[in-house]
Amino acid sequence: MDLPPHKRESVLPLPVVLISTISSDGTLNVAPWGNITPILRPLDEIVLASWLKRDTLDNIRATGEFVVNVPTAGMSREVMICARHYPPEIDEFVEADLIPHPSKTVRPPGIEGCIAWMECTLVEEICREKYVLVIGKVERLEADDRFFTPDGEMDPAVAKPLCMLCGKSGMRFTHPAGDGEYRSYAEMFSWEKGA
Ligand SMILES: Cc1cc2nc3c(=O)[nH]c(=O)nc-3n(C[C@H](O)[C@H](O)[C@H](O)COP(=O)(O)O)c2cc1C
Prior knowledge:
- This protein is mainly beta.
- A hairpin with a 5-residue loop joins strand 2 (17-22) and strand 3.
- The relative contact order is 0.19.
- Helices cover 12% and strands 34% of the residues.
- It has a single domain (10-189), classed as Pnp Oxidase, Chain A.
- It is built from 4 helices and 12 strands.
- The chain binds flavin mononucleotide (FMN).
- Flavin mononucleotide binds at residues 16, 29, 31-35, 49-51, 54-56, 79, 83-85, 164, 171.
- It comes from Methanofollis aquaemaris.
- Keywords: Flavoprotein, FMN.
């Protein structure tokens, strides 16, 4: 079937993150984000797509700083509370009962209970008529040991990072099931048949 434009968004599963920022007058803000991707490996930079009318975007522009928090699948309630359109003077940590997790390189705190925290600074904006692509430098990446193997790889069965599939009138929250298969990067450099 050919998918019309309004149905295309269900094709790609997206990660769900919570972006925490601080306004120039010190108000904390949190908003969920799905359109976010690393810029290649090893996660030195990320890019996120933002509609123009976002307190998150205003705060990133005002302070040059933000934290990308990776929530667990169990945090969908908090995600939806933070998705509401609060006025900029409302502290969304308070609204969603979130506990700040101290950052080391940027002013906005992360969110306690998340799997990982990327402390980011604004590098560049690519502005279009209706949206902006924000490129951020990951200054520091902290991960909660509970969700990672001793050599620093996320264990998806334990962490259950929140993901979503967009539908016609809502989002289907999910998380990577993990089928136990693990393929080596070395395979990409081998062109032997059947290797
Ligand atoms: C799961 C989820 C993902 C979202 N992803 C995005 C996104 O990628 N870009 C965007 O501009 N808004 C996105 N939104 C909408 C914003 O989170 C929402 O409008 C929020 O109120 C913005 O808050 P702010 O004005 O405090 O930044 C998403 C909402 C949800 C629930």
